[in-house]
Specification:
By secondary structure, the protein is α/β, with parallel strands linked by helices. The chain has 24 helices and 18 strands. Helix 21 runs antiparallel to helix 22.
């Protein structure tokens, strides 16, 4: 803990209203014409006037804390832009920029050295070891402290492992430097690794940070609820809150944030009452938002808080009911987002460590949803709905449960659906399933009471209306989003169209396709699908199976029904030699680029659990 005199600590001690921090830097830079994929931190060197203008606008809006433009100024992120050897220079330039702007403002303004997350999560869920992260953070924080910041803001962190490494690094550099450590949360009010606000607050307090924070995440209503949960867990703690301007929306190709400045001003009072000592903004916020926060907290006496915000807080309680009953996949498809799904097989034994490591890699790479197969190739594996629950609760990423009808009677089908919904699984992919004759237990029962279209109808017309197959009430309607299988290169196109029509008529919400390799065949059938079904057509996620070796390609082409690999692609894999996996990844990228405009997303099926290949492909297509 900091013991010597410090302007930030002194300001906290004499607080009569919350300290107002600034808002988004990236949003403002983008509004100034900077491309979204540019290195914002390098602008401290290349376009200092633009950065300084934004700092100046925030000070004029009333910000008492200005964050340095260094959110991504660590070596892991700067390395992407060829600036790995300029960490010290970029961070020092950022601090000096703020100093000059503050000097010219003739105001008492604190400078926060902004430290963001590394490019990938820490082990055991990522590729960076804690000691490596410690060194990275020491390098950046040393530059910020030496340049003269008043405090360090460790923000938008997704896991407590990284927070601990950053805090330890800051204490190593200067034990007296005050720290704000701030986490971001998913829509279900958990971190990416599944920690609750209470757990985060207690851990932050144990780390010894001066201020426990929550930032980014969603809008003010969500963060008000999280702030209260944190305050309940650590009643004597000090807290900061810096929300986004609402959940982002894609409008006309741009990311927009719906919460306006006046709305922020209203919530500033609620944050104050809930225990916030520092209030600012994150993504989507502007000087106008900060001006409204400043006006609200400076014009309202503390003893008048209760009377002016009771209605607002009541509304927040209603708004902050967890959005568990709405499939995120459904929302993304409805919003026109290009969705990335990736399939994983459950483990064959009790240990799920490798599966969770793979899920972490896929989530970090940018997958929107992880599909979990059910006994693929009729081989005994862990129950998939348990795996879905593990992935969702650990990483906060949504899953799709594969749900074969084969081997399930009507009782088991309905019981499994209830179990899946109770564990917050909202997406199910209905298929017939592999025959037991090809698997580990060829003599096992292979009977079933429902074909896929029957199960789709049961889910959409019965469970989603609140009754079971016998008409009995199940308490409340389920909210399943149902997918079905599709073949884009069928031997009998007319029959495939007929089957797809039945699936859609039964209530299918989306299709996942078998792996595709022949672009011409795919586009020909897709046009027939659209012509035949018209407005009834539902979104399609096209199947992508990255080839790993020449032998892999030949096996798929010759032995797997429904998969045909053009001779030209087989020759490319043969010619690639030891670089076959890289060639397979490049083929996958080319297929996606050629088909992206025609589909609503992609559905990766990694061979041999090569999740690293899928992660690299996602990086390429993004």
């Amino acid at each position: 803990m900091a013991t010597e005199s410090n302007k930030f600590i002194d300001r906290l001690a004499e607080i009569d209203h919350p300290i107002v921090s600034d808002g988004a830097m990236g949003t403002m830079l983008h509004d100034h014409g900077i491309k979204i994929d540019a290195c914002f931190d390098a602008l401290n060197l290349t376009q200092p006037a633009t950065v300084a203008e934004i700092h100046r606008d925030y000070i004029q809006a009333g910000a008492e804390i200005i964050k340095t433009n260094t959110f991504g100024a660590n070596r892991t992120k700067l390395d992407r832009h060829g600036l790995v050897d300029r960490v010290d220079e970029v961070n020092r330039a950022a601090v000096n920029l703020v100093k000059r702007v503050v000097l010219g403002s003739f105001k008492e303004v604190l400078i926060a050295g902004d430290v963001g997350p590394l490019r990938v999560p820490l082990a055991p869920f990522g590729r960076i070891q804690p000691e490596e992260a410690f060194d990275v953070y020491v390098e950046q924080i040393s530059a910020l402290v030496d340049a003269g910041v008043d405090l360090i803001l460790i923000e938008t962190m997704v896991d407590l492992y990284a927070v601990r490494a950053a805090v330890e690094a800051a204490r190593h550099v200067n034990p007296a430097m005050p720290l704000i450590a701030s986490m971001t949360f998913t829509r279900d009010r958990r971190t990416l690794l599944g920690n609750t606000p209470q757990e985060v607050a207690r851990q932050m307090d144990a780390f010894g940070v001066e201020v426990i924070g929550v930032n980014c995440s969603g809008g003010p209503a969500q963060l008000l609820h999280i702030l209260r949960m944190m305050k309940d867990a650590v009643p004597n703690g000090r807290f900061s809150v810096m929300p986004n301007a609402g959940f982002p929306e894609k409008v006309g190709g741009r990311i927009m944030y719906p919460a306006g400045p006046e709305y922020f001003g209203d919530y500033a009072l609620s944050f104050w009452r809930a225990g916030a000592d520092v209030i600012g903004g994150c993504c989507g916020t502007t000087p106008a938002h900060i001006a409204m926060i400043t006006e609200a907290v400076s014009s309202t006496p503390k003893d008048a808080l209760v009377s002016v915000i009771s209605d607002l807080e009541s509304a927040a309680e209603v708004e902050q009911k967890p959005a568990e009953d709405r499939s995120q996949l459904a929302q993304k498809l409805e919003d026109g987002k290009f969705v990335i799904a990736a399939e994983m097989d459950p483990p064959r034994g009790l240990s799920a460590h490798k599966l969770l490591a793979g899920a972490s890699l896929l989530a970090d790479a940018g997958a929107d949803v992880i599909d979990v197969a059910d006994s693929p190739m009729a081989r005994m594996r862990m129950s998939p709905w348990a795996v879905c629950h593990l992935i969702q609760s650990t990483f906060g990423i949504e899953t799709t449960l594969h749900f074969p009808t084969r081997g399930r009677n009507l009782l088991r089908v309905q019981g499994d659906l209830l179990a899946a919904h109770a564990m917050n699984v909202r997406n199910v992919f209905v298929v017939m399933g592999d025959p037991t004759a090809i698997g580990d237990y060829p003599d096992a029962s292979d009977s079933y009471d429902l074909v896929p279209t029957g199960l789709i109808r049961l889910i959409k017309e019965e469970f989603n209306t609140g009754v079971d197959h016998s008409g009995g009430l199940i308490g409340q309607p389920t909210s399943f989003f149902v997918g079905a299988a599709m073949n884009l290169c069928p031997n009998d196109p007319a029959r495939e169209i007929q089957v797809l029509r039945k699936k859609i008529d039964s209530g299918a919400d989306f299709f996942l396709t078998q792996p595709v390799f022949d672009i011409e065949k795919v586009q020909t059938f897709l046009q027939r699908y659209k012509d035949s079904l018209g407005d009834a057509a539902v979104p399609i996620l096209v199947g992508i199976l990255p080839l790993v070796t020449e032998r892999h390609a030949r096996f798929l082409h010759n032995e797997v029904p429904g998969i045909s690999i053009p001779e030209a692609l087989q020759k490319r894999m043969a010619s690639a030699g030891e670089s076959a996996a890289a060639e397979g990844a490049q083929i996958a990228v080319e297929l996606i680029q050629a088909l992206k405009a025609d589909f609503q997303g992609v559905y990766f099926m990694p061979a041999f659990s090569r999740y690293d290949m899928v992660a690299e492909i996602i990086d390429s297509i993004k």
